[in-house]
Amino acid sequence: MVPNMSARRFKRRIFSSCFLLLGLLLCLEPSWALQFYIKSGQKKCFSEDVTASTRVLGEYLVTAGPGKLEVDLTVTGPEGKMIFHKENIDQGKFTFESPAGPQHGQRAGGHEAAGEHGAEHREYDENYEDVWPTYNYQFCLMARNGDGPETKRKVTLHVSAGAAAKDYSTVAKVEHLDNLEVALRRMEDEVRTILEELEHMRAREEAMRSINEAVSRRVLWYSIISCLVMIGAGVWQARYLNAFFRAKKLI
Length: 251
Description:
Layout: H1 4-26, E1 31-39, E2 43-51, E3 55-63, E4 70-76, E5 82-86, E6 91-97, E7 134-144, E8 152-161, H2 168-175, H3 179-247
Antiparallel strand pairs: 1-8, 2-7, 3-6, 3-8, 4-5, 4-7
Helix pairs in contact: 2-3
């Protein structure tokens, strides 16, 4: 049997290991990076859906190569609005923030809940954007003015969103934070991002539940109306046949 002190040390080590593992998982930044070759006259576009009030950071690098070739980068947001544009890029960054969405518990259109269950569940449209809006952004690269069709360049595009898009080196300089404080700040932001994702999922589940309830009510009323129509048609048909047979003196 393990003594009490050894058991306590063992539990303390397990707790420390779990905490360290959690910290490593939280440090995993939600981002994506692409590396590809682009030839003269080619255009390549990539899209990303971003939730409301989310900061996005992009980094690009065009590796030099033989011949002449210019690569342009254009970032467009919802409704085709241009967010960033630069011609003949080589290396740099761009950043933007998605528009703010509705506050928690509110709809984008500001509609009120209907019916006696409105206090518990709000009536949402079947469009999920009405609950938790997301915005689609396009990242397009265009190669032009090349020496020939086989002239190409290697492009690296890295896009981060949320806490991963925050520049903690600048935060450390401005707020005079040491490495441990910066790590704690990063972990705090990651936890906040996870909580926002959980809130995102909760809002989506609430919306889907409201949609299912609305569809169930419509199906119920449709079934009732169908039954009433069928009963009415049967009664009318019976009366018609009875009158027809009496007119023919068959009964």
